[in-house]
Design a protein that fits this description.
Blueprint (H helix, E strand, L loop, with lengths): L16 H14 L4 H17 L6 H13 L3 H11 L3 H6 L2
Helix pairs in contact: 3-4
Length: 95
């Protein structure tokens, strides 16, 4: 994935600086992860949003996914599709 992805996207108006800062940190923290490490990392990020009281709207979440996919390689897009199609019971099995 390109390092400059966050510099070239137009955020939705609903996305405040706290959310943008969180996304920047999350993106940079995931850059060098292998596919097997991505799900645990995303799970930790979800927990962090709860602690920091960051709540993304459904449209913001879809925006984030689409922005990442638009700048991803075919293999990365495939991995994103697998992750975004997981059901809660699939995540529980991975623990």
């Amino acid at each position: 994935m390109r390092d400059d992805i966050l510099e070239h996207i137009s955020y939705p108006e609903t996305m405040d600086e706290k959310k943008k800062d969180f996304l920047t940190t999350a993106f940079h923290g995931s850059r060098n992860l292998q596919q097997k490490d991505l799900l645990p990392y995303l799970t930790q990020l979800i927990k962090e949003t709860k602690v920091k009281n960051i709540k993304f709207t459904n449209s913001e979440i879809q925006f984030i996914i689409n922005a990442i996919k638009n700048n991803a390689t075919p293999d990365e897009r495939s991995a994103i599709d697998k992750i975004t199609n997981l059901k809660p019971e699939d995540v529980a099995k991975s623990k």
